Amino acid sequence: MSDLVRRMRARPELRAERAAAAASQRAHSRLRWLWRNYNLSIVLIALFLTSWIMQTWMGWRQYEAEQHERGAVAQWLGDGGYLWRWGEATFENWQSEFLQLLTFVVLTTYLVHRGSHESKDTDEAMQRQLDRIEQRLAEREG
Prior knowledge:
82% helix, 4 helices
């Protein structure tokens, strides 16, 4: 029997420590795998949540100051509550972003900016190059 096995049998706490260390290493490797494969999504989600939280907090502070000027109490819910303003500001932002993205997608479908990956000329140029290569190969064979 090896010395390590004897020590582990003699001291059960070593087994628990090794199991905890192995579990910690597995969790760490899962986190590393998650970061390596999805770091763009993680960063974008973090930026989105940070900006949304900041919009909420700054909007609340402004709403609270306006309510204080009027002598009213700022409320989250209710007919004149902050929730309605917050929802309006959020959906206005999202609407403008989606409209901008939709415009970009539609315009890049029909318009050309030579050399751009989003532009349709990239596929056409590639096809012309492939056609020339095939023609040269056919000439050599024939």
